[in-house]
Amino acid sequence: MRTEMTPMNPTPFTLRTLALAVLATVLLGGCANFSADGGFDAIQSATQSRIQKDVVWSRDEAARSQTQARIDALLAKPLSAEDAVQIALLNNPGLQAAFNTLGIAEADWIGARRLPNPALSIGRLTQGAEVEWDRAVSLDLMRLLTMPMRAGIEERLFEQTRQRLLLDVLRLAADTRKVWVVAVSANQTAHYQQQAMEAAEAGAELARRMAQVGNWSKLKQAREQAFYADAALAVARAEQARLQARERLTRLLGLSSADAIQLPTRLPDLPASLPPLPDVEQRAMDTRVDLQMTRLQTEALARNLGLTRRTRIINVLELGAMNNSFNDAPLQRGYEISFELPLFDWGQARVVQAESRYRQALERARETAVNARSQVREAYAMQQSQYAVARHLRDEVVPLKQRISEENQYRYNGMLIGVFELLADARSQIAAVNAAIEAQRDFWLADADMQMALAGPPGKTAVTSISSVPADVAGGH
Question: What span, in angstroms and rounded, lies between the C-alpha atoms of 182 and 193?
Fold first, then answer.
C-alpha cells in the first residue's frame, strides 16, 4: 500500500538535505569497481606466509598451461610430501571451483556500492481530443540512504569468504600431506608383508615335505599352513590399502591417473626432537582462521541488526521526478516521495529475527573458541605421544629384534635350533618393523593435525592398519 505523505511545499532545508545525501551516495557509488585480482592476492600471500606454498587461480588457458608445465616438472621425480601439497594447491579441481565464490562475493560487495537503477514510467491518456502524457523517473531513496551500511556489511561478508577460502586451502594442504603419508607407509607395509608371506610360504613348504616323509605331525603342518594363509590374507589387505591410498592421493592432486605418481620407498625419518610450543592455546587463538571468520560474521550480523532496527518502520522510500504534458495546456512538473505505510507490519518480526541471528552468532563464536582450545590441546598431546611411541619402536624394539635375529642365526649355524625357529624369528622381526612403520606413519599424521589445529579444525584421515600375524602362531616347536 503506497500513498503520498510529503507536503506540497517542502522547505528548502529538506530538499537540500536529501540532495546532499544523494550526492554523497553518488560519489560513493562512483568508486565501486572490481579489483584486478578479485581479492585473490590476499589468499596467495596468506598461504605463502603460513605454509610457504604457492596457490594459483587458473582463470584462463594461459594460466592453466603454465600451471600444467609446473605440475609436469614436479611429477617427473619421486613425489615428496611438499611437492604433493604444491600440486594439490595448483591443480585440485574442487579448490579451483571454490575460488569462484570469491568473484560472487566481490560482485555482491560491488553491487551494494553501486547506485540503484532508476525506474522510468510513461503513460498516455486521451479524453476526446485531449491527450495527456505522464512521465516519471523514480529512485529507491531508502537504498541510497542505507547504501554505506549495506556496503560495509557486504565488505565483511567478502572478507569472510576470503578467510573461508584460505581455510579451504590450508585444509587441502593438510589432507594432501596426510594422504601422502598414508600412501607411502602403505607401500612400505605391503613390501614387508610380502616378505612375511615369503617366510611363511617357505615354512609351509618345508612342513609339507617333512610331513610326507613322516618327520612332522599333521597338526604342526596345519599350523604352518594356517600361518601362510593368514600371511597371504595380510598381503591382500595391504595391497588393497596401498591402492586405496594411492587413488585418494590422485584425487586430491587432481590427476586423471595414478600412474603419473612416483612415491618414495619410505617415510621421512623422525625429527631429532620436537620444538617446544609454549602457550600453544594462545597461539591457536591468535592464528586460527575459523576464529577470524566467526568474528567477521558476528560483526556483519551486528551491522545488519543495526540496519534492520533503523529501517524497521520505513523500509520502502522512493523519490521521483514527474512531468505531465498536454496538447492544450502548459507542461506540469513536480516530484513525489513515497514510502510504505506501517499499518500492519511495524518491522518487529524482522528485528526479532536479526536479534536472534546475532545472539546465535555470539554462541557459535563461543563454541568455536572452546573447540579451538580443545582441538589444539588434543593435537599437541597426540603429536607428543605418537612421537614417543615411534621413537621407542625405532630405537628399542626394532634393534632388539635385530639382535635376537642375529643370535638365532648363530644358533642355527651351530645346529642348536632348527629352521622353523629361525623362520618364526624372522616373522617376529618383520612384525616389529611393520609396527614401527605404522608408528612412524601415525606420528606424521599427528604432526599434520597439529599444524592444521593452529590454522583451523583438523580433519580425520581414515587409515587401514594391516596387522601382522603374531610370530608365535607358528614355529613354536
Answer: 16
Nine-digit cell string for 176 = 594432501
Cα–Cα distance list, 124 to 22, 246, 325, 337, 414 (Å): 30, 73, 10, 22, 118
Q: Is residue 439 part of a domain?
A: yes
Give the length of the chain.
477
Q: Which amino acid is at 363?
A: E
CB atoms within 10 A of CB 364: 13
Per the domain annotation, does 280 fall within a domain?
A: yes
Q: DSSP code of 397?
A: I
CA distances from 425 to 260, 351, 412, 420 (A): 38, 75, 11, 9
Return the C-alpha cell found at 436: 614401527
Q: Is residue 317 part of a domain?
A: no
In angstroms, rounded to a whole number, what is the distance separating the alpha carbons of residues 390 and 436?
6
Maximal CA-CA distance, the chain:
131
Instruction: Give residue 302's domain range.
Output: 32-114+146-312+347-473
Instruction: Evaluate the CA torsion angle 224, 229, 233, 236 in order and state its sign.
Output: positive
How many degrees, rounded to 5, is the angle at CA 399 between CA 396 and CA 401? 105
Greater model confidence, 30 or 132 = 132
Tell me whether residue 464 is in a domain.
Answer: yes
- For the segment 240-270, what is each residue's pLDDT rounded down to a tens digit? 999 999 999 999 999 988 888 999 999 999 9
What are 3's strand-pairing partners?
339
Closest CA to 227 of 436, 15, 431: 431
DSSP lists the bridge partners of residue 337 as 319
> What pTM was computed for the model?
0.75
Nearest to residue 170, comparing CAs of 50, 307, 34, 87? 50
